[in-house]
Amino acid sequence: MADQAAEHHLERRGGLPEDLRWLVTKYPREDWQSHDNVHGMASMWLQRHDMFRELGGKLTAGIGDYREGRLDAHGFARWFAPRLNFFLGNLDGHHNVEDHHYFPVFAEAETRLKRGFEILDADHHLIHEALEMNAEAANAFLRTLSEDADKQRFAADSYADENARLIAMLTRHLDDEEDLIIPLILDRGDRALGID
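^ thats the sequence. predicted structure below, dont judge the formating
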């Protein structure tokens, strides 16, 4: 079991295991938008995930702009802090709803995917730890904005590393979650799953 957990660890895997991909094979990603059941929960899920991808990209670009001197420290802090808080808070809330409501419903509806939801739940724990580390690195960086340039640079580099790790984890997780959940919704429909 430990070997299997290590094999499916979020930072090491390249996607869901093949035995969990049978629905995404039946409903490939390129066909999702034209499916009758995409409206409703599937569409909301995809939009929410796209928002997280977009915000993660903006935070990455913003720290890059600061590190390259395109934003001064105080201008960056005013831009950065509310976006980071929104990103971290919404991501944590989204995962809590998934863990406590949707994942149990989906795992019960299709027991062959239960292990997939266990993998996604384990991801959420890793992502939560990364969110905390990201917030700590961001706060440490923001505290240096009134200090010398070397301390600011070091703290900005540290935050950028934490951000890159979080975004890489999040990107893998969002793709895998969509590959498990969206085909299930398309296959069964919101009402049959009890999520309408």
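The mean pLDDT is 91.
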